[in-house]
Amino acid sequence: MSSETKVYDEETAQHRRREIKAEDNIREAVDEEAKKNRGFTQVYPKGWRRIQALLLENKVAAQIYAFLAENIDSSCGSVVCTQQVLAEQFGVHERTIRRAVDYLEKVSAVVVIKIGTANAYCLDPDEVWRSWDSAKDYAAFHTKTLARKADNNVVKRKLQVMMHQEMGEPELSLEK
């Protein structure tokens, strides 16, 4: 009888060792996840210069830029929302948002792509980068978004201008 008890105890001990090892692995994974920089927005020197200029030139545009930077998706550097969302966020009229967004486009701080009644706001990844965080009031979602060329006839040129500026090439005009 005692040899049977010993076998049972050894099997139980092995099983318990496996359970402890699994618990340790889970604890290590949780610790590793906690070390990641979740919830941070990375702002590069070019981004800080942009923020400083916007704060001096157009306060609402600076607020919108910061809001977009906080909510962009890390895989594509953009976020889709309506101007109504922005107006509610800042407690201003949609006309104020339109003027500020137009200003942001004019100074090449954002590229705006119309998506029906919403816009995709694209920021330069050399200025800001955002890791995704589902706990935000306005979360970014991975989507395949289709936009009509007719609604966005100058987007290609705006992206070319942004890329030339990024590469330190002579400034291009938005006009063809």
Structure, described:
The protein is α+β, with helices and mostly antiparallel strands and 176 residues long. It has 2 domains: 1-36; 41-166, Orthogonal Bundle (Arc Repressor Mutant, subunit A), CATH 1.10.10. It is 53% helix and 12% strand. It has 6 helices and 5 strands, in the order αβααβααβββα. It has helices at 2-35, 45-57, 59-71, 83-90, 94-106, 155-166; strands at residues 41-43, 78-81, 110-115, 118-123, 128-130. The strands form 2 sheets. The chain has a 3-stranded antiparallel beta sheet. The chain is elongated. The termini are far apart.
Average of pLDDT = 78
* Fraction of helical residues: 40-55%
Which homologous superfamily in CATH is the superfamily of the largest domain?
Winged helix-like DNA-binding domain superfamily/Winged helix DNA-binding domain
Structural class of the secondary elements?
A: alpha+beta
Number of domains: 2
Shape: elongated
Quick overview of this protein structure:
By secondary structure, this protein is an alpha+beta fold. The chain folds into 2 domains: 1-36; 41-166, Arc Repressor Mutant, subunit A, CATH 1.10.10. Helix content is 53%, strand content 12%.
